[in-house]
């Protein structure tokens, strides 16, 4: 055979696989990849089990079961004063990643530009590249990762098809404010740019702040896909269940791809979630639950040589290590895993041209015991 021509020649094994692999090899505490190490609600697991026993083991409807679509749109409309319709404006997906990939597949044409705020979740750019688009990065910087909307404006061209935002933001733990969203709404007015608003951490937000969903702003909602993940909300990242919302005209195009991409998502889990979501307390309790973990972790490492701004949302905390070493963050993260037995994620891998702000990302969706062990290690460095 002649040599293969890769469609993604620059993509290598992603950092989560590398750091989790190293953590296993070195028998290190793994605070790198973002997944909880505590149990899922027994009630939710029972509901999935019951759904399987009741026979919900065959294909679900393509866009998701009506009961789940109904409860999600009702929840969103209540929380964000929106008007999504369960029949036309929602699709249940196999995790947010599948929704993101499908949105990009459905809308990005060869030659299109997509503005991406960096650091960014690493699935956006390969999908853009696969469909012939070009990523136009806007780099944000530690410690506050504030968006310079004038810079964003300067990157808009006649080729701009899409803009991707993410709030609460992985990896920085920052959030977009109401004023950010109003500025963005103004900026996109009179354009045909589609907004992809990745809101997978919508319920993990701290210190009394409220999530500023694109769904709240009519000028954004009319052009937006909002992506969400049950993995983040119900500690079930391994189930890969999520959904996306958008006005009908956009969702119709999405479904054209979705039906050939996965056709539908896990049926028994949809049945279970449709019942479980009837109790808002399950997601309303999340800010307190994770804020306690954040505060516990930060109180334990407050006297360490790492410096930080407490995360405003997500279950990630950035720690700045410039008082310890000026090593490149990837090298330092690997050394910490090998020598000190703690794995984290170096943030430069999410940045444009690997900008190195000397910060590492630690996941605090962990038991108190794990957080104590982590703090003990970090305090000695
Ligand atoms: C910003 C962001 N978007 C999307 C996802 C993917 O969510 P899912 O696991 O539901 O595909 C993640 C997961 O880490 C994320 O951090």
Q: Which secondary structure elements does this structure contain, and how are they paired or packed?
A:
Elements: H1 15-25, E1 29-30, H2 42-53, H3 66-80, E2 90-93, H4 95-107, E3 113-118, H5 124-130, E4 134-139, H6 149-155, E5 160-166, H7 178-188, E6 194-198, H8 218-221, E7 224-229, H9 230-233, E8 242-245, H10 248-261, H11 267-276, H12 281-284, H13 286-300, E9 316-320, H14 329-340, E10 342-343, E11 345-346, E12 359-363, H15 368-380
Parallel strand pairs: 1-10, 3-4, 3-5, 5-6, 6-7
Antiparallel strand pairs: 2-8, 7-8, 9-12, 11-12
Helix pairs in contact: 2-11, 3-11, 4-5, 4-10, 13-15
The protein binds pyridoxal-5'-phosphate.
Defining key terms:
single chain, 381 residues, alpha/beta, Aspartate Aminotransferase, domain 1, Aspartate Aminotransferase, domain 2, 2 domains, 7-stranded mixed β-sheet, 3-stranded antiparallel β-sheet, 15 helices, 12 strands, 14% strand, globular, binds pyridoxal-5'-phosphate
* Small-molecule components bound: pyridoxal-5'-phosphate
What's the order of the H and E elements? HEHHEHEHEHEHEHEHEHHHHEHEEEH
Q: Helical amount among residues, as a percent range?
A: 25-40%
Low-confidence stretches: none
Q: What composes the largest sheet?
A: 7 strands, mixed
CATH class of the largest domain: Alpha Beta
Structural class: alpha/beta
- Mean pLDDT across residues: 97
Q: Count all strands and give the number.
A: 12
Q: What's the structural domain tally?
A: 2
Examine the secondary-structure arrangement and name the CATH architecture of the largest domain.
Answer: 3-Layer(aba) Sandwich
Radius of gyration: 21 Å
Question: Order of strands in the sheet with the most strands?
Answer: 2-8-7-6-5-3-4
* Continuous helix count: 15
CATH topology grouping of the largest domain: Aspartate Aminotransferase, domain 2
Q: CA-to-CA gap between the ends? A: 51 Å
Bin the strand percentage.
Answer: 5-15%
Name the CATH homologous superfamily of the largest domain: Type I PLP-dependent aspartate aminotransferase-like (Major domain)
What overall form do the CA principal axes indicate? globular
């Amino acid at each position: 055979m002649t040599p293969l021509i890769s469609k993604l020649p620059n993509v290598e094994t992603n950092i989560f696989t590398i750091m989790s692999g190293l953590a296993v090899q070195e028998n290190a505490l793994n605070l790198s990849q973002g997944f909880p190490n505590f149990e899922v609600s027994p009630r939710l697991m029972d509901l999935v089990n019951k759904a399987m026993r009741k026979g919900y083991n065959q294909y679900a409807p393509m866009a998701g079961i009506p009961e789940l679509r109904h409860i999600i749109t009702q929840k969103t409309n209540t929380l964000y004063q929106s008007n999504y319709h369960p029949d036309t404006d929602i699709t249940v997906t196999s995790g947010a990643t599948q929704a993101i990939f499908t949105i990009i597949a459905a809308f990005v044409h060869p030659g299109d530009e997509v503005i991406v705020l960096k650091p960014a979740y690493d699935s956006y750019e390969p999908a853009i590249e696969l469909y012939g688009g070009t990523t136009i990065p806007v780099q944000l910087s530690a410690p506050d990762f504030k968006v310079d909307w004038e810079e964003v404006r300067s990157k808009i061209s006649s080729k701009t098809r899409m803009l991707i935002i993410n709030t609460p933001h992985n990896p920085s733990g920052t959030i977009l404010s109401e004023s950010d969203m109003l500025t963005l709404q103004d900026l996109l007015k009179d354009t045909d740019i589609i907004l992809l608003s990745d809101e997978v951490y919508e319920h993990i937000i701290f210190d009394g702040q409220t999530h500023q969903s694109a769904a709240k702003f009519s000028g954004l909602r009319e052009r937006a896909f909002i992506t969400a993940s049950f993995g983040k909300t119900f500690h079930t990242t391994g189930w890969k269940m999520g959904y996306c919302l958008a006005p009908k005209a956009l969702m119709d195009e999405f479904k054209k791809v979705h039906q050939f991409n996965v056709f539908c998502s896990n049926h028994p889990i949809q049945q279970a979630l449709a019942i479980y979501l009837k109790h808002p307390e399950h997601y309303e309790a999340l800010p307190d639950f994770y804020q306690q973990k954040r505060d516990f972790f930060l109180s334990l490492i407050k006297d360490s040589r790492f410096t930080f701004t407490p995360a405003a949302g997500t279950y990630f905390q950035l720690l700045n290590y410039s008082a310890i070493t000026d090593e490149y963050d990837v090298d330092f993260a690997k050394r910490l895993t090998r020598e000190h037995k703690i794995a984290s994620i170096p943030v430069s891998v999410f940045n444009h041209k690997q900008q190195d702000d000397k910060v590492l990302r630690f996941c605090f969706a962990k038991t108190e015991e794990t957080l104590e062990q982590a703090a003990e290690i970090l305090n000695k460095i």
